[in-house]
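ok trying again, last paste got cut off:
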Amino acid sequence: MENKRPLIVQKYGGSSLATADHVRRVARHVVERKKQNCDLVIVVSAMGKTTDNLVKLAHELDPNPDRREMDMLLSSGEQISMAALALAINAMGPYRAKSLTGPQAGIFTDANHSGARIVEITGERIKSALAQDNIVIVAGFQGLSTENEITTLGRGGSDTTAVALAAALKADDCEIMSDIDGIYTADPKKVVNAKRIDKISYDAALEMATAGAKMLHKTSIEFAKRHKINLSLGSSLSGHIGTTVSGARIGDGIVTGVSADEDIAIIRFALNQNDALNIPYIFSKNKIHLKLWQAVQGLGMAGVSRGDSNFAIRLLQEITTDVHLETKWALLTIVGDGIGVGTPTAEKFFDVLHHLNIDYKAVISGELFLKALCPEARIKIALQRMHQELLDSV
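nice, full thing came through this time. structure:
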């Protein structure tokens, strides 16, 4: 009886597919992977800045575009990528590729346009194409709703598509390929000595993504953890894997990485304590992610993404007129096992801030992270020094 070949799901991001030459390079990597005697499902994002350009077009035509029509428009970007990559693979040979949209691949979602969640993947056409030894190319970021409408999955949607497909198809591995060859201890563009992490736990990777690291979207990590997916991150330039993500933890007191989240707006407000304690519920109901929250003796502070700040202010102004916006802040985060307040690692964290005379205004502590709200003007030096003190010697 013939042994079953391993099934690999790979995802390629938009910057990896930006031009015809980029597409041909990805096609070569895919063909080389196929030569390793495996079945392949490839998930693609829109080419280069296609999605950004489509969003710009929509807002030029309608300042407040309908979300259904936005999904119809934005989903076209991934369809271009899937067909282009299939054409490149077929022209290259010796293998054949077949492209499928999200709905054709059997990806079904709820009815929440522009931020849909996957509810089921049937994958019958994928399985049929694999049985005919095709390389299957699937458009990421999209699906078909329970109301028979095209939907998009929101930020990081192609990563989520890849991990969800890996779970539904019981793939042996899910490989996220981009122009960054793995997860680093810090953003290499901001910290010169940042080092690639060979192995990282789901939890640490999730905290890194939540803290602003851009290698992998948090929804896809949550999905991978829940379904125990073998997850790897690699380079679309070389085709090599750099970081593997699993359930294994490193050990108490060891810092995995540092990150700076500059996409934060601080909203200060005055409310009685009972009303203030309802704010997290109101924000959750309106899909606003709270990055930071404090409410003490009638004074509150909420930290949200800058893109959510105007909406958050409108919600707060419905219950109080005393609302103030501040945007000159950033969240400095260290990620690791057993590093919260009260640990030796936390002591080093605060020592660095004190030695730099950084006047931080809030602290958030957990078993896997420690965050401080710092002036944005000082975040670069704080990030570099924190990496130097906690990671360069490791």
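cool. The two ends are 49 Å apart (CA to CA). The chain is about 35% helix and 25% strand.
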